[in-house]
Amino acid sequence: MECLCAHPPPRLQHLGLGHNKLLGPLESLYVTADHWPNLVSLDLSFNDLTDLQGMIASLSTLQHLRLLVLQGNPLGLVPYYRGFTIDSLSRLCVLDDITVSPSEKYQFRGLSHHGDLLACEAQLVVTIGNVKGVPDTSILDPDPGPQGPFISYSYYVTYGFVEDEEGEGSKYGGVLAETVEPAPRGEPLGQDVREELSEGHGESVESGPSTPSGQREDSLASGASAPPPWVTDSAEELEALAKLRPRVDPRLGPSAGTVLFSTTRKPWTDVIPCNYEMQHSLRDLVPLKAFLLAGTTVTIVEEKILSWPLVPPPVDIVSPAKKGKGEKDKKGKKDKDKEKDGNDKAGKGDKGTAKEQKASKKKELPKELRQDPPILRVLGSGLLALEPLLAGESLVSSVCNFGVIRTPEIDRLMFLRDLKKNKRAKNVLEAGKSKTKVPASLEKKKSAFAIYESDYQPQPLTVEVQIQLNQCRSAEEALRDFSL
Fold first, then answer.
1. Which of 58, 112, 261, 448 has a C-alpha 20 to 30 A away from that of 14?
2. pLDDT digit string (tens) for 225-257?
3. What is the pTM of this model?
4. In the Cβ-directed half-sphere of 367, how many Cα atoms lie within 13 Å?
5. CA 47 to CA 409: how far, in whole Å?
6. Distant-in-sequence, close-in-space partners of 386: CB < 8 Å, separation ≥ 6
């Protein structure tokens, strides 16, 4: 810019300096009326200009300026950028290829007088919705025996976001999105987790104690747990253990210059609702611009955890010796007494028996369980383009499609399982416990299996993602939300 302004054409009306990597606050010194007194149109788009107030102060000296393009610069990411520019340059007709309307001038009137009170930071809100097309792999697992393993599955979504040393680190205290870590190997599980594992027998449940909101995902990506007490600091032993440690999928970790964020773990359902929302506030705008140009990687992860009883269940040993006739008579008498007592208890009502059965089931469960380190598997991963946020758009909304990963075998087993559940519901209705008619959906299930394979269309793996760049709609909103 300094060389360009050495001998500027005095009658120049349009100056195009877009995509020139202009940066630093000194650049605003060269776009004044001293160098370009007759300038009507100026294009400074997609540079690295960050000083909004200094730039606007220089541009206000250009009395003939009517068209201005500043989009693509880091300074255009602050929420009050458009309103502050419109109120400061009252003669401006078009900003970033959008006509300045009288209503905009009215809504942002007076904002230019409070520029020193506004925080120079950008705010983006990431929302992750439903995940569809995830296969229920637990249907392939065998039923757990008394010695385990009890297998649980959970699913979550990760994405990378630029790390801001000035803003985000101090605001969040170095912690990020809410996650749920698995318990280290050998750590007893809570009673509620043991009940879910026993009742589900392989169904997906959320296992492990919760960590505080904002836990980093780095430790989860490696799948590592607390080091065992027998591990020493010997270089040879550490090298041997490193060879035994399984390789980590690079998609489970953050890319260079970003931090990994994660939704909470969710059990399997046909539609997994993430219900995730995170606001990112960043003051370092130049790395944010580079991040938006590169985009972010969205990944769907399956977490599998095997739990084992700490104390193996006792094994009943039956003596091979035959019992005598007297012992059989005694046993028969005892059985009759038990039946008599059972009939007396049955007279008290079904509620008592149900409670006793539930209590007996709980007694049979192992009192303490330990968890193996989690087994992580990437179900799908892809790049989400964020460049439209630099080009003036305030929202990027996408349904990330990772293709079909469900197999016909798993879908067929899931279909049969659902069909069996519907048949049980029909049997309950026909037993006289309900006088209502059988729903038509249950009748359709019978004929559905006959045409299942011909009409089979597996659902692709998808996740709903939205990233919104906050923008102020009025001067009042800017002063209320972004005052220092």
1. 112
2. 444 444 445 666 666 655 555 566 778 888 888
3. 0.70
4. 3
5. 53
6. 291, 292, 293, 295, 296, 396, 467
